[in-house]
Write a structure and sequence with these properties.
By secondary structure, the protein is α/β, with parallel strands linked by helices. It contains 9 helices and 14 strands. The strands form 4 sheets. Strands 4-1-12-13-14 form a 5-stranded parallel β-sheet, with helices on both faces. The protein has a 4-stranded antiparallel β-sheet with strand order 8-9-11-10. A 3-stranded antiparallel β-sheet has the order 5-6-7, with helices on one face. Helix 1 packs parallel to helix 9. The protein is globular, with a radius of gyration of 19 Å.
Length: about 280
């Protein structure tokens, strides 16, 4: 099929404007424990540190992935999309152009040039107040039923949701299942990611924030990636999505017609996802 430029044909359709919304932790960036460097040391990829916390390196991607992300940032609207709080997100220094938009707190905060959009946040909090149980009720239940023997920290994020930091080897599987059922009946979702157990209101979604960014940017093609239960709505909302071979969604065997399940695990999956994003942008244009 021949390509005809817009300059040579006034009737030629313009290329789609592409928005790429990607989860960060265990999708694009990885802690030391999550890297999954299973290859011989001599052929392991060179890594770039993109997050320092308390003067220690914390998160990485491969140098190849860094170059791919830089290229992607010049071709599409790249929107980091994370359950992290704003403070946790701002520790990350990604390669490439600084994103104009970022989605934090699972959609509770929409950052525009690094500043939370007050109108968006007000709309989200109003919806939470009317559609699900309160954060106070959920937090108190988690504190009352969790065993100090395996809980290391109780945390509230942005006054929007709660999470626990736990010792995974001591964590009773039945407790997580029971919490999930209890939360489901109150309009909340439970997600186990590494050493963290999240309880998040169902109306608090990455997909709603992604749609808002797409509306503002005029995007006509949306691409997304993520590894956890909290990313499922984002993947379903996008025109095309990818998930790595690790994480909650992979463990559950979750997929959808527009979502590709990749075999790669660990930091290699982050590199593969970025290649898929770039291919998707090129095909779209």
């Amino acid at each position: 099929m021949s390509r005809i430029s817009a300059a040579s044909s006034p009737s030629a359709p313009s290329a789609p404007k592409v928005l790429v919304a990607s989860d960060l932790d265990r999708t694009l960036i990885y802690s030391s424990a999550a890297l999954a460097l299973t290859m011989p040391d001599a052929v392991a990829p060179r890594l770039l540190c993109v997050e320092v916390h308390e003067s220690k390196p914390l998160s990485y991607l491969t140098e190849t992935a860094a170059a791919l992300l830089t290229e992607l940032g010049g071709m599409a609207d790249f929107v980091p999309t994370t359950t992290r709080t704003r403070k946790q997100y701002q520790r990350i220094s990604l390669p490439g152009p600084a994103p104009k938009y970022a989605i934090c707190a699972n959609g509770g905060h929409l950052l525009v040039d690094g500043v939370s959009d007050a109108d968006w946040h007000a709309r989200v909090t109003a919806r939470l107040a009317s559609e699900c149980a309160s954060l106070t009720e959920v937090r108190e239940h988690m504190e009352a039923t969790a065993d100090p023997a395996w809980v290391r920290k109780h945390r509230v994020a942005e006054d929007l949701f709660a999470y626990l930091v736990v010792e995974r080897e001591l964590l009773p599987e039945d407790w997580v299942k029971e919490l999930a059922v209890w939360a489901e009946n109150r309009g909340w979702t439970v997600s186990l990611q590494g050493r963290k157990i999240y309880a998040v209101p169902k109306p608090l979604t990455k997909s709603a924030a992604m749609r808002e960014v797409a509306r503002r940017t005029g995007a006509t093609l949306t691409l997304a990636a993520g590894d956890s239960l909290l990313d499922a709505d984002l993947l379903l909302a996008a025109d095309r999505g990818w998930r790595p071979g690790h994480g909650e969604l992979a463990e559950a065997g979750w997929t959808a017609p527009t979502v590709t399940a990749l075999p790669e695990r660990g930091v290699a999956a982050g590199e593969r996802i970025l290649r898929e994003f770039l291919d998707g942008v090129r095909q779209g244009s």
